[in-house]
Design a protein that fits this description.
The complex is a heterodimer. Chain A is of the alpha+beta class. The model of chain A is unreliable at 1-5 (pLDDT under 50). Chain B starts with a helix and ends in an 8-residue tail after the last helix. Classes of the chains: A alpha+beta, B mainly alpha. Chains A and B meet through helix 1 and helix 2 of A and helix 2, helix 7, helix 10, helix 11 and helix 12 of B.
Chain lengths: 734, 401
């Protein structure tokens, strides 16, 4: 019935089909080979990208501490709220969440709503939240248990500056993502920030957890702590007095101050105001700046806010390291150059006529009538420009240029703060005689306050230029020291002998001239400066803006602390450094010296008083006025109307010192030769000086010891000085 | 004593009967062990991979990681019983049952249109808590029916005086139209259930068997042309398919829409690399790849076992198919030859089409992978078919060919 099976024909066809099947399989296998071998990396990364979810664990940002471990910048724990928009299924929920979260977190409803619509499993809603706000979010989640898989609260950290504006321009601040944006926070960000950790977890589509899920935990490495050389209390002292000075002298620009450890180069305090509060760095909290803005622009207007925002940014910058013209404070360095090069003798006298001609220019002295005949010591005390122009000319361009370099005024000091500028000085080829003349009294070029204080410190400590620094130590989270700075001598600037001499001259300058900086018993040495802002002219093209400054250190015989204050554009009637900057520096220096526990030299305590004006008064009346003020008077010539007094009114003299009165101008003695006092007893010495119309100041602890005699005198024997000059003698046993 | 001898006699009679059965069993030709081992290997690997691929989805959807594998194992046991039965009992015994399968199948396929259905694709029949796809049975029914027809019909010889056109019409009817209708009717029924993959398989298997049957080429050509036209119509004339084709051409576009599945499949395969991520270690099965236990199970296999595993498993399939066709070539008669060929070619078609879809070689069709994909009835029927293959292999003189 059935037809005969014809296997040959059918089998042939089956065999062909079999081959076709094998070929088809091979083709598919080739496709798999292509995907698995050639496209492996591409698809693997895409697959991993969607399967893994990285949750970043913030590393704790390191703290910034002062030298005693007080916190200057710390990271406090805070909270952040995140959301998984993909878990929101109902539109109603999206609206409810957006409404409530925007209210609690003080956000825009539309912004939050937009987040709920995103097709992602992780969105940061708000960061750096305080406990109270976080609690409100938590309550909201508790009330709506269904939202617990949508809204999450996790730990976050917030940067906090416990002392507000204090040291703000040095510290800088961090942005919303904990990234350092200014100051040390920025320049040392890599140390402070640490390495964030992360949790890499394999999630299912939709982010739900699975029993077989894999998780990898990479621990965060906390940031390093930075210990500064800053002394918190000194910083407070510095800023307190700077604030006072700004108000008192109606300072238009900045007041900057640095306190430095003379022996180590450590910055103990530094500030430049106006500044800002890094806790709230977008807001101007400086009253003076705000009132300036309000006087210039209508408050709340568009121009006002433009100016406001521009001002905010300038406040962030550290103005301590901005250039200025040092003025007479620079004479310290000019003197150092001349002494080092043996270009001036201590007994040599200079005659100041009130001006000096350099090339075709007449350059005036601060005292237009001239200082007359004076030694280099007196020239420094009087801050006489012609004296320094004279010795500047002796130094010459080339040596002057080399010393500018040696004092580190051409390069950044490398102290470790942001925004440091280099100094500006002439190149050797363009250094004219006129430039040399003005340079020798500190005008016509610019350096930074930091450069000046470093250079002066090198003289104060006996000639060693110390590398200044503000970072004392950086330690990692385990307490290992990562970086450590210690005092380092960069180079020798002057010989120890000359350094000592300059120190004693500077002490005399304070004691005898800049008495507003004099602190009883502390041997303050220093120099004022009043420089004109040559590049800043008013509408009439006149240079009307000035910078009053003072640099000083104490004690002069063993300097510990150096202070530089720069008052940029004081707007009070007097603009002299001696009247504005010196008292400011004195207050800072006095508090700082007390703080470091330096006892005043009690034996040396002398009350200074201002010499009253008795010219044109009857001699008897004049003597009475002087005795009331605690001075003794010595009348030269006959009784009658006083025509001249030495020293002139306004000078400070120790109590009991002698004021010489003249009734006849012809009797006025131009100068007195200082006798050799060495070996005399205190009484003999006193008598000798009074006879020569000179005043005495005795120092030394062994004054009452039998056999104590003068072992040194502040003015060398044979030097000529003006009458009534205070000669300081040291009493001791030989 | 008499009693005793009686009992001894009856015992002897029974033992003789038993001995005869044993003798008969001993003479009974063995099944082809090569085919058996290949099939069982694939079954074991398939079940192991199903567990790995499905546990995440099972846990997520059913709360029980073993949901799919335990069900599949139950069906595998049932299937193995069917396989054993089919391989032991000579096919003469169940031939009537198999012959009845075709009409039953037509009825069931028609019933799908009448019975209420919860599925938007009308392809399931629910009886109590039990559900199955009649199209699964249809594939086997069509193979058996065609094999039966091809073994019965006589080659027509033109009678003297008969007009050429009449002879050609008769011949066309017998060699092409009737067998065409045998698989065309169920194919159409399945297609209109919008069960495209089932229709493609029935069409493919039926077509292959028709070609093998000795149908003249001049008749087959128009059928092939018609089939191509029909396919093109389905591919481009219906939204259902055009979207799939777009996905095939641009798998990277539209990340969450239609392209999502194929894209996730490629991620899985690509991630596998040469040696794979290791058994159980797939990341893509965590709800990224939809239906990892079903049509796309091989993507997870490729991810976990790598290209080496892919090549090994494909080699097993090729060997099984090679051996299956060999069984057909050595079958004792035309009927069994066509059955063996039909079953084997059906497996081959399913495997090739499934793998081609998974690696985006061809557009998504929805064909499951034999031995691997989840699906109880399909697995049980497959194992039953393997049983039939084994039964046929007993009488095939394989060593000679």
């Amino acid at each position: 019935m059935s037809i005969k099976h014809s296997p040959m024909k059918v089998n042939k066809k089956m065999a062909i089909v079999r081959i076709v099947v094998v070929v088809a399989f091979f083709a598919v296998l080739c496709k798999f080979f292509y995907i698995q071998i050639f496209q492996h990396e591409e698809y693997e990364s895409k697959a991993l990208n969607q399967q893994t979810q990285e949750t970043v664990i913030d590393a704790k940002r390191g703290d910034i501490l002062d030298r005693n471990g007080n916190e200057l910048a710390v990271s406090a724990s805070a909270y952040m709220v995140t959301m998984s928009p993909t878990m929101i299924t109902e539109e109603e929920d999206a609206e409810n969440i957006a409404k409530n979260l925007s209210e609690i977190l003080d956000l825009n409803y539309d912004d939050v709503y937009e987040m709920t619509q995103k097709n992602v499993s992780y969105v940061e809603v708000a960061r750096r939240l305080e406990d109270d706000v976080t609690q409100l979010v938590n309550n909201f989640i508790q009330e709506n248990p269904g939202y617990s898989s949508i809204i999450a609260i996790s730990e976050d950290s917030k940067r906090y500056y416990p002392h507000g504006n204090l040291l703000s321009t040095v510290l800088g601040f961090v942005g919303i993502d904990n990234q350092g944006l200014e100051g040390l926070e920025m320049s040392y960000d890599e140390y402070l920030s640490g390495t964030p950790g992360k949790i890499i977890s394999v999630k299912t589509q939709g982010g739900t957890s699975m029993p077989f899920e894999y998780e990898k935990y990479i621990e965060a490495e906390d940031g390093c702590d930075i210990t500064l050389t800053i002394d918190l209390e000194m910083q407070y002292i510095l800023e307190k007095y700077i604030d006072e000075a700004r108000v008192e002298h109606n300072v238009q620009n900045r007041v900057a101050g640095i306190v430095m450890n003379v022996k180590t180069g450590e910055v103990l305090a530094m500030s430049s105001k106006p500044d800002f509060d890094p806790n709230d760095y977008l807001v101007i909290n400086d009253e003076i700046v705000l009132s300036q803005l309000k006087s210039e622009y209508e408050e709340g207007s568009e121009e006002y806010w433009t100016a406001y925002n521009a001002m905010v940014k300038t406040l962030w910058k550290n103005k301590l390291c901005e250039q200025y013209e040092p003025g007479s404070t620079f004479k310290i360095l000019t003197l150092a150059m001349a002494l080092e090069e043996n270009l001036v003798s201590l007994t040599e006298t200079f005659n100041c006529t009130g001006s000096m001609i350099v090339g075709s220019e007449i350059i005036h002295c601060a005292k237009r009538t001239g200082h007359g005949i004076q030694t280099i010591r007196e020239g420094l005390g009087n801050s006489c420009n012609p004296v320094f122009m004279t010795i500047g000319a002796r130094i010459g361009q080339e040596k002057f240029y080399n010393y500018i370099t040696a004092f580190g005024l051409r390069e950044k000091t490398g102290v470790g703060v942001t925004g440091e500028q280099t100094g500006y000085h002439y190149s050797l080829s363009s250094f004219s005689d006129l430039d040399l003349a003005t340079s020798s009294f500190g005008q016509g070029f610019k350096i930074t306050p930091l450069q000046l204080i470093c250079a002066v410190c090198s003289i104060a400590n006996g000639g060693d230029y110390m590398q200044p620094y503000i970072i004392s130590q950086i330690t990692d989270s385990d307490g290992n020291v990562v970086l450590s700075n210690s005092p380092k001598v960069v180079r020798k600037t002057v010989s120890e002998e000359n350094a000592k001499l300059i120190c004693s001259y500077l002490e005399d300058a304070v004691t005898e001239h800049i008495t507003r900086a004099y602190i009883e018993g502390y041997h303050v040495a220093g120099k004022t400066g009043t420089s004109q802002k040559l590049d800043s002219k008013n509408e009439d093209g006149e240079i009307d803006k000035q910078i009053a400054s003072f640099i000083g250190f104490a004690p002069a015989d063993d300097p510990q602390i150096c202070v530089l204050v720069v008052v940029d554009e004081p707007n009070s009637e007097v603009q002299y450094g001696s009247l504005i900057a010196a008292p400011l520096a004195k207050s800072i220096l006095q508090d700082c010296l007390e703080l470091i526990g330096l006892e005043p030299d009690v034996e040396d305590s002398v009350d200074y008083a201002e010499v009253p004006d008795v010219v044109d008064k009857e001699s008897s009346e004049a003597q009475k006025i002087l005795s009331e003020e605690g001075f003794s008077a010595k009348l030269v010539g006959n009784e009658g109307t006083i025509t001249h007094q030495i020293p002139s009114s306004g000078t400070y003299l120790p109590e009991g010192a002698t004021v010489i009165l003249y009734t006849n101008d012809d009797d006025v003695q131009e100068s007195v030769e200082v006798p050799n006092l060495i070996g005399m007893t205190a009484a003999e010495c006193n008598r000798e000086l009074i006879n020569r119309n000179l005043n005495i100041r005795i120092k030394g602890s062994s004054i009452s010891t039998p056999g104590a005699v003068v072992i040194s005198q502040s003015v060398s024997p044979g030097e000529t000085v003006s009458p009534a000059t205070v000669i300081t003698v040291e009493i001791g046993t030989q | 004593m008499i009693e005793k001898t009686k009992t001894v006699k009856t015992v002897n009679k029974e033992s003789k009967k038993k001995n005869a059965l044993i003798q008969k069993w001993k003479k009974y030709p063995n099944v082809d062990f090569v085919f058996l081992v290949l099939a069982l290997s694939l079954l074991v690997i398939g079940l192991a991979m199903l567990f790995s691929a499905s546990f995440a989805k099972a846990y997520s959807e059913q709360g029980d990681s073993y949901y799919y594998i335990s069900k599949q194992l139950q069906w595998a046991v049932l299937g193995l019983l069917a396989m054993g039965a089919a391989s032991v009992f000579p096919y003469k015994f169940y031939k009537p049952i198999l012959m009845a399968l075709y009409p039953i199948c037509i009825v069931l396929l028609s019933l799908v249109y009448v019975l209420p259905s919860s599925d938007y694709q009308k392809r399931w029949i629910y009886i109590g808590g039990f559900q199955f796809q009649p199209s699964e049975i249809a594939k086997l029914a069509v193979i058996l029916a065609l094999a039966y027809y091809f073994s019965k019909y006589k080659k027509l010889v033109r009678k003297p005086g008969e007009k050429v056109i009449v002879f050609e019409a008769k011949n066309f009817m017998v060699t092409t139209v009737i067998p065409g209708l045998i698989f065309g009717i169920p194919c159409a029924l399945v297609l209109f259930e919008t069960h495209l993959s089932g229709a493609i398989l029935i069409l493919g298997v039926g077509g292959m068997m028709l070609i093998i049957s000795g149908c003249p080429k001049r008749y087959i050509l128009p059928i092939v042309i018609l089939a191509v036209i029909a396919l093109l119509y389905v591919a481009f004339g219906t939204d259902y398919m055009t979207s799939r084709i777009n996905v095939f051409l641009n798998p990277e576009t539209d990340p969450t829409g239609d392209a999502y599945q194929i894209r996730q499949s490629l991620y899985a395969i690509g991630s596998g690399g040469l040696f794979g991520v290791g058994y159980g270690a797939s990341g893509q099965k965590y709800l990224y790849l939809p239906e990892p236990q079903n049509d796309f199970i091989f993507a997870i296999v490729a991810e976990e076992l790598g290209f080496v595993g892919v090549a090994a498993i494909m080699a097993l399939f090729v060997l099984l198919i090679w051996r299956g066709i060999k069984i057909g070539m050595c079958a004792p008669n035309r009927f069994t030859a066509f059955i063996a060929f039909g079953i084997t070619i059906q497996i081959a078609l399913q495997v090739v089409l499934n793998l081609a879809v998974v690696c985006n070689f061809i557009p998504v069709t929805g064909i499951s992978l034999p031995f691997f994909s989840y699906g109880g009835t399909a697995l049980a029927i497959l194992l039953g078919e393997i049983g039939i293959m084994l039964q046929i292999s007993r009488y095939a003189s394989l060593k000679n060919k």
